[in-house]
Design a protein that fits this description.
two-stranded antiparallel sheet; elongated
Length: 378
Amino acid sequence: MPAAGALRLHSHVALMHDLIGLLLGVLGPILAFVFMLTPLIVVHELGHLIAARKFGVNAPEFGIGFPPRIATFFKDAKTELTINAIPIGGFVRLAGAEEGDRRPGGWNHASLRAKIAIMVAGVAMNFFAAIILLTIVFGPMSERAEVYLAEVQADSPAATAGMVPGDRLTAINDVVLEMQGAPLSNLRNLAGEEVSVTLLHADGRAETVTVYLRTLDEAKDRGVLGVTIEKVIAAGPLNRGLPDAVRMAVWESASVASGLLDALWKLASSPFQNDADAPALSGPIGLSVVVAENAGRLGIAGLLHFAGILSVNLAVLNILPIPPLDGGRVATVVLRRALGERRGVRAERNLQIVGLALMLLLFSWITLGDVLGLIGRN
């Protein structure tokens, strides 16, 4: 082959390699997020199915993914389980959901109590799934952490207490550091206070020192402790009992739900205000990047932790009184009962239009934030 032809072939191969790398770089995080999100949506829809069958509402199909259908995996007298080609989420098809359909065993024939219970069951299942996942993370998969210090700022609280690079932090206020999350993230909540820090020095000597943390004003761009972390390593199992693991799972779920509601409220009340202390909202793009970037570092336990948090997020978002979310559907069935069938149907249609507009606006705003965040990091 002539040299010029070989050069062109090499150039084409290199270009193809770069394009494939770019494609995987874009699709990888999205696929990682989808494969984590889909089981949580299936669990959510399973809640609807269980409640529907309990209250006598027929559900002809429970689908994993979205059509076109690939196969029917299971079928009984009331429901068939289908596997579908588009592997994003799932659905429950309820009988008699069409307007005016009053067949026995259908959605429109069900009582108000049954409709509310069926809608809320999906949210309850996501909370239940989150508590199970987080109980596993905080129980049998929990591990102690050792935080290696890379640098200690001069005249910082850490330096004053005698910390040096190479020291390992193992506990704060006698509470052992854990691998899940950021082990030192709670230090900001103790800003300005006196804390005890348990250390392992490079020579293996253990010591507990008293540290007077900076206030939040003093800590701006410097941190409350004044250290730079080199790495965090696992240092053995915690052997936490089941009651404590469940308690921590419930507390974590409640904390995540509260933080998301706070973020949504601040977004709704002051959408253009830049509040550095406001909880961050991330959409599919931002969450996909987080999953892809941290999968290797976090391991199975970390990914389960993230899945539990994501399940709480799904529950909270779905309970919002905005159609077509579950909370919005609850609001519309209550309105139909309060206003009567004719006026209720009209109010429901108006709410659906407003709800879809709000959902589109929220999704667009959060996605814009994700994209701007990615641009700012590059």
